[in-house]
Structure formats: C-alpha cells, structure tokens
Amino acid sequence: MKFVGRETELKMLNQEFEQGVFALSIIYGRRRVGKTFLIQEFIKDKEGYYFVALESNEIINLSSISQSIYLACGLQQTLPSFTNYEDAFRFLFDYSTDHRVVFVIDEYPYLASASTYISSLLQKLIDEYRSRSQLFLILCGSSMSFMENQVLGYKSPLYGRRTSQHRIQPFGYLEASKFVESYSDKEKAIVYGLTSGVAEYLTFFSDTKDLRSNIIEVFLSKSGRLFEEPSNLLKQELREPKMYNDILFAIANSCSKLNEIANRLNKQTGALSYYLKSLMELDIIERKTPVLDRKTKRPIYSIKDSMFRFWFGFVQPNLNFINLDMGEMVYDQYVQDQLNLFMGKTFEQITFEYYETRLKKGELPFLPKDYGNWWGNDRLRKKESEIDLLSYNDKGQYLLVEAKWKNQITKKETLTELIEKSRMFAPSESFFWITSLSGFEELDVQRNIELITLEDMYDF
User: Fold this and answer.
1) Burial (CB count within 10 angstroms: exposed 0-12, middle 13-18, buried 19+), residue 116
2) How far is Cα 384 from Cα 107, in angstroms, rounded to an integer?
C-alpha cells in the first residue's frame, strides 16, 4: 500500500530524529485514522522496534516488551524476559547512550492500565537519562481521553517531558481523493463523505470498481468492512454502547437540541452530558454554536463523522434487508435517490476545507476574526435563516458562502438571496461565494463574488 498524505507529520518526526538527542513524541488519534502507517513509514529506515501493548495483564506485557527491547537493541529475541519494567526500560535507556534508537509503544493506554506506575517510571528514567540519551521514544494511543488527560495533561507524571505531540486527524477531501484517483470529482467527494476521510476506511474503496458496487460491498453486505463498524467502535471505546447508540440514533433522526435528544430517549438533560462529551472526544459528534453568538445557551448537536451519519441513515434502518442479502435492493430503492441529500452536509464540510486552505495560503479578501455556520432570526426579512459559512472581522467585512450539492445548475436566485441575507449584518464591505456541484447559470459576476465549482475545488 502506498503512503498517502501525512507529509507534514513525517517531516516533523524526521527533523526531530535528525537532532540526535532524547525525544519523547506523543502520537494519538481515533482508531483507523492511520497512526500505525505513519509511524511505520517513519521508522522503516531507522534502528529500533515497534511494540504494540496488549489489553492483558502485566506479566504478558512485560514478557512481550522485553523481547521487543532486545530486538530494538540488536540482540536475540530468545533472551530471558526482564523481571520488572524498570530493568527493561533501563536496559533500553543505557543502550541509547551510545546509539540513536527509536522505540515505539503503540496502544500505550493498555500498558499503563495494566501497570499504573509506568508513566511515573518513564518520568524517572527520562529525568535521569535525558542529557545523555539518544532514545527517540514514541508513545501512541487511540484512547483520546487517556492520551490527552493522562499522558499530555498537567497532572500526568509525563507532563513537560514530551518534545513533540501529533494528533492525527482524518484526511481532508483533497488527500482522500488520492485513494480513488480514477474516480470523477463527484465520486471522490462521495467516497470522502462515506469514509469521513478515515485512512483505513478509504482503503476499502477500489477505484477499479464502480461506486455503486463499492457501497454495496462495503456497507450493504453482511461481510462488508463497514457493515458493523459503528457498533464495533462504540463497543471498543465506550462502556455503555447501547446508550451511545441511542443518542446517535436520536441525533441522526433530527434531534439536534439537548432537550430534543433527552425527550426522544426519555432521559433528563443532565444525565446526557457525560455521554455527549465522550462522543465529542471521539470526534463522532460535534457541539455547534452560530458564529456571532458563540455563547448561546442553546447549542445544537450533529453527527460530525459522516461515515456514522451514512450508517445511521441507510444501514441501520435496513439491517433486516441486508441480513437477507438484499444489499442491491437497499441501494437501488433507498440509497441511490437519497445520496445527494446525504452529501449536502459533506459538501458543506468540503467548502469549509476549501475556505481554510485559501485562508492558509493568504488568498482571502480579509483575515477573519471568526467563521462558521450561522443561523438565527433575519430581522429585515422577518424569518429564520441559515448561512452555510459566515466569515467576518472587526472592520465590518463579511464573506457569506452558500454550498449547493445538486444535480441541477445553480440559479441566480441563490446569489440574490445570499445578498439579501447579508444586509441584516450591515456590513461595511461584503463578499459572496457560492460553491456548486453542477455549475451555474450565466451571471454578471462582480469583483466581490466568486462562483466555485467542485472541479475548481479539486483542481485547487
């Protein structure tokens, strides 16, 4: 499998390695996102070893890490195991005083849960050896809360010892497209929506097959790689998967406010806070507030992970049919005609990423103070209104963006309405973008207006 993306993280790791001094790099991110592939690419030409901790007891992990340390130090794997972790790690640190060596501990939370003193032991040895060690130690984990609180957090024994940290995010739409290069731009965008840019999920799609076949094979088949993925992920990460599943079901079925979710589940609102926070830490859902009113007491919740959104929209409601091997029927009758509706939110995300890429390149009309979704009461038009992306600064400059994922060309009325919406903000200067799947009617485009096609967004 070719190495895709992660150029920035790989470059930073190699630059740190070349310094030749002790390093403690923390690498974390949700499961399947590509942490292992990144680390393996980094260490492939370096002396060292990649150890994966087991969800097991201390004796088994000590035996396994002993052999890994021997291999990292160029010794035979058949040597007897160390009798304790201090002897094992001290052996590695001693070796590193004369050798530049990389040692990776993947699934570090498993090791630390089985032996709760491990972080304190590493702190002790780091402080003792730091000035003369050439060890490049990588601690990697998929448990987001553990890595952020018990490894990076200020109460952790390792606080202040790390020399770098990398939170590995899913790929953006441009990087994700490299997995299905022969697809059309529309198909690439759909694959991005189906996978939420998660590296392992992207590898399940083959651009030698048509998109319909891929969706049926991956999602709508009992043996599909993503047929049970949301359920399995919730079981792996969380203690009460049924409760989390119920919350996601409620959000997927238009319950976006806390009281709506609570009413749907017949729960008190206060009882849901812990569960919502856990889902947010896993990047499965997000808490959204409108730009210009970030302190609102009425935020909304939505499913951020678009693979989960697709699963709850099309797989869960049709489990009986899929279990009867009727995946093709499910696609033809339920998925095909609703795919554009599903893609509306994904296209909005792609528009955000396109905006942020231009922001980083300095290709925007102004530097924003804030940007995001906006919704609320349009006082001038006397009705509730929404804007897909609103960006502004303190000088009264505003950029309003509308994202249109439709098979029909975008008509001039869309621009007219966007201009009308802008008046409620009384801007000193206004700019307008419309992003469109299918292009535009012929318009008299002025300096402050950009009409952006999906093709433009991929070419960029």
Assistant:
1) exposed
2) 47
In angstroms, the CA 15 to CA 98 distance is: 20
The three-class DSSP label of residue 321 is helix
Q: Which of 197, 219, 191, 212 is nearest to 315 (CA)?
A: 219
Model confidence pLDDT, tens digit, residues 154-167: 999 999 999 999 99
Nearest to residue 352, comparing CAs of 390, 320, 299, 322?
Answer: 390
Helix (H, G, I), strand (E, B) or coil at 72: helix
SS3 285: strand
Give the C-alpha separation, 319 to 333, whole Å. 14
Residue with the two structure tokens 């022969």: 182
Q: Which helix (H) or strand (E) holds 388?
A: strand 383-392
- Across 405-433, average pLDDT: 96
Give every CB contact of residue 425 below 8 A, 6+ residues apart in sequence. 392, 398
Q: To which H or E segment does residue 94 belong? A: helix 85-96
- pLDDT interval class at 60 (50, 70, 90): very high
How many residues in total does the chain contain? 460
| C-alpha span between 196 and 346 (Å, rounded) | 9
